[in-house]
Write a structure and sequence with these properties.
about 375 residues, alpha+beta, 8-stranded antiparallel sheet, about 15% strand
Length: about 375
């Protein structure tokens, strides 16, 4: 890394870190005003409170986590501050007079923006779902309930690809490989009942389901039984039951806690979703993929805005940038609404603001040169 890159990044990352820390601390302080009495009443230690807020900041809240939402804003403010300082002291003019092109000066900022986008994507995919579960566990403690997620009783689960309806008497989310009091109905293509399997216990072993204390009954096309249930003395293995414990857990988990990959696999494995439900889920998927790249968009917008701040003043530049962010999130919410109601394609509802502001920022940078 060249000396000039280190200098640009030091000024930029320092300002961004201060902005990000300020926003995160403000968010935590506001929430603590509400929760602190509950923490004290429950006897929660300060270390657990700190761990709770570490999870709280990256937990999913709406379409994304607060961290992924506030990081682009912090990057934009940090970039404007750094570029304002460079312009005020004529450092950018000096650098360009030495033969350094604007594209070369932009490079460190763009590298950081791409890295931040990938970081947000990683947080959303790998960190945020588990952090959300930890936040829910602490909320249960504050309400006086056990921290561990309670077992589900009489839980239904329908696996559309195989047309099997599972009715699970007892399911512990921590050990989904063991199910108690299971009743499974397999349907034909016309939704008539083909067979019914009941078992005292089901276990997922070596990639297939084993049923203990099982009995099977078959039905004709009119739904009439073809004889009494046929009990199995030995454990019954069903290799054709391809739904895994993970599929069952996805069936009980809130849609907001799905990763983008899990969303895509769910949509792909459920071709019979209604058009409205499919559109709603596709919009959520595309928003998950589009939101991290706001880090790149705000950087491209901030470069021409920051270079001109020495002419119009820092406050005017910051207000202009905040206005652009407001317009961006307004367009995103509008696209979300229109896409989920099939007025526009689901992908367009999520990606249109990114494409629009990407083109606008490139035009502004081109005029800057």
């Amino acid at each position: 890394m060249k000396l000039i890159d280190r200098y640009l990044l030091r000024e930029y990352l320092g300002a961004t870190a201060y902005c990000l820390a300020a926003f995160l601390m403000l968010y935590v302080v506001i929430d603590m005003f509400e929760r602190l009495p509950d923490f004290m009443d429950a006897g929660i230690s300060w270390s657990r409170i700190a761990l709770f807020y570490a999870h709280f900041l990256v937990a999913i809240n709406g379409p994304t986590s607060f961290f992924a939402l506030i990081l682009p804003i912090s990057m934009l403010l940090g970039l404007l501050y750094a570029l304002f300082g460079f312009s005020r002291h004529n450092e950018l003019t000096a650098m360009r007079s030495c033969g350094i092109s604007l594209s070369r000066l932009m490079l460190p900022f763009l590298v950081v923006a791409c890295a931040a986008a990938l970081l947000c994507l990683f947080v959303q995919e790998k960190v945020a779902p588990q952090a959300s579960l930890q936040v829910e566990a602490m909320v249960r403690v504050l309400r006086g309930a056990p921290e561990e997620e309670p077992s589900l009783k009489q839980h239904p689960f329908y696996h559309r690809p195989t047309r099997r309806q599972w009715n699970i008497g007892s399911l512990n989310p921590r050990t989904p490989t063991v199910l108690d009091n299971v009743r499974i109905v397999t349907e034909r293509d016309d939704h008539s009942r083909a067979s019914e399997l009941t078992a005292e216990r089901a276990e997922w072993l070596d990639g297939s389901w084993w049923f203990f204390g099982a009995a099977t009954r078959y039905f004709d096309v009119d739904g009439r039984p073809l004889g009494p249930p046929s009990p199995s003395v030995l454990p019954l293995e069903k290799r054709d039951y391809t739904e895994s414990p993970k599929d069952i857990l996805l069936g009980i988990r809130s849609w907001d806690l799905f990763s983008a990959l899990e969303m895509w696999n769910f949509i792909r494995s459920h071709p019979d979703l209604s058009p409205e439900d499919r559109a709603r889920r596709l919009v959520d998927l595309h928003i998950r993929l589009a939101m991290p790249w706001v880090c790149l968009i705000v950087t491209l917008l901030g470069i021409p805005g920051g270079v001109h701040t020495h002419r119009q003043g820092a406050l005017a530049g910051i207000l202009t940038a905040i206005f652009f962010l407001f317009v961006y999130y307004t367009l995103l919410q509008t696209g979300n609404y229109l896409g989920k109601r099939l007025i526009i394609p689901p992908w367009a509802g999520a990606w249109f603001p990114n494409v629009l502001f990407f083109i606008a920022s490139l035009h502004m940078i081109r005029r800057l040169k």
